[in-house]
Amino acid sequence: MVGDPHRSADLGDQSFAALRSLIGLYRGRFVVATVLRTIASVLPALHPYFLAEFATSSDDPGRAGRFLILLFVTGFAHFIIWSAADYFVAAKINPLTYEFKRFAFDTVWSEGYQRFVDRPSGKVASYVNDVRSHTQVLWDAAHYGFLPVLVSIPVYIVLLWQTAAGNAIVYAAFLLIAGVALTSVAGPVNARQRHLTNTTATNTGRVFDSYANFVNVFSFRAQHKEIARNDQQLDDLIKDDVRAGYALSTYWTVSSLLIRGMLWAAVMGFSWYQFDRGSISFQAMIVSVTVLIDFTSQYWNVVHNLGEWIDKSAAYREAYNYLFPGHNIVDDPVASSKRAEAEPSGDARDASSDRVEPIAGRIVESIEVRNVRFAYPDEPDRLVLDDVSFTVRRGERLGIVGKSGEGKSTLIKLLLGFYRPTSGEILVDGQPVGPSELAALQSYVPQDTSLFQETIEYNIGYAEPGAADPAKIRLAAEKANIAEFIESLPKGFQTLVGERGIKLSLGQRQRIAIARAFLKESDLVILDEATSALDSETEAHIQAALLELWEGRAAIVIAHRLATLNDVDRILVIEGGRVVEEGRKEDLLASPGRFAEMWGLQRSGLH
What we know:
Blueprint: H1 8-11, H2 15-25, H3 27-45, H4 47-55, H5 61-109, H6 113-118, H7 121-163, H8 165-212, H9 214-219, H10 223-276, H11 282-323, H12 333-337, E1 366-374, E2 385-393, E3 397-401, H13 408-415, E4 423-428, E5 431-432, H14 435-441, E6 442-445, H15 456-461, H16 470-479, H17 483-488, H18 506-519, E7 524-528, H19 536-550, E8 554-558, E9 570-575, E10 578-583, H20 585-590, H21 594-603
Helix pairs in contact: 3-5, 3-7, 4-5, 4-11, 5-7, 7-8, 7-11, 8-10, 8-11, 10-11, 16-18
């Protein structure tokens, strides 16, 4: 369901409803822009009449001069008002496309953790960027393409009705026929373009993923595999592009046939026929032909912008409905206020239902996991955690062990607030809390630290909600035993770490993550094999620093190397999503059980 590009039809297409809501928020700006462009478009639509009057005033120089002045004045006024509209649009309308991108970016971050798991990040990023560019094209097409023509057509009809009523009927019939014909050929263009947009974004995400994993590619000398896979995707993409191109070419062919083969023949032939029979004056025939030439220019403008509209509206709808199926991001509470804090969650319950007494600013004494069961949203019938219960108190260090796939990482995701338990609850000082509260009280040091492509100072300071004090950042780095290394770099704390921190070793990245934990004033420290990539000497320094970090806080330590649990107070053994053993390390080793078995296997080098 996640990858289906057309699933939005089942969920309600809210893409253009969101644009209408954006216009509603800033209706004053759009009204001003529309009025200015309307006035500017009416003035040149009068030129065929002025020109005809001027051409037929050869025996009255005064009259001819007046219409020549009207031609100049209306043309110059058009220039002044059109330019004023351009400046207004540049200052007040175009920035709103970036505001729409802000809505999109904010709304993506308000979604649950599972949404990020389900969708390729490269494709999501591509679509968030595309949403802005597509809305800009849609506005340009409507404002510069459709609006001037919609304003001009009534003026043309009135002029023709007064001078050559028969031609006015010809134009009205042409507009009806052209509307039906262009609508029929536009449908396939829209469908092809939506499909092309999806496959293009998929390839863009794949290219991003390929380059982002360049270490793996070089490690396995798999450049040929990446090239071959990309070649196959591009071959399919080319086929989709050709089909979309054929549909678009058909659209342009029909458009040309309508104007050149139908309207020109009808207007010119009918005008000459009426003039030859004396039904209309020479002045009326000049008006008819002049309107035809001007209308043709306007027609091509409409056809071009309609093509752009079909193209970009299809791309916009595809991008929008992939990102936000069934949602109006402007009217949704998180986006419309832009003040709501992102609420990571595993289901659709109201974020406000979590809210209890704020954790920040008070001392937390205990964190309890009570009868927690959990199944991932895409596998609701398979429990990964089954009736897990334990309590960790302030100043206590709890170790959690178990084989891979037994539920340790899932338990950490619940404690980090990435998901809500399927049943059971997590309590702080006896009160149930939700994801936001859990996120506020913990510092997390993962096994594999991925850094932003920013400075070392930025990456350590990321633990703070706002700008972090450089002195505090340096102190945190000292406690994590990495300050000396950082200062040895040419730019020190201002050194860029490269994409995902590639310029640093794994151990250095982990120590930056540990520095973050020192920087954040949290009640719970969660360590997921935080010293696994460090050499023995550095690990000894870090372990000493961790004792300081744990002081006065609750700590949960996930360990695969059981020797790293020497400093914990209590150990939980998880197997099959259940707690099968619990106790002090010495007590668990003294009795035959799963922990003693694992300890023996690691000591003998078999595990």
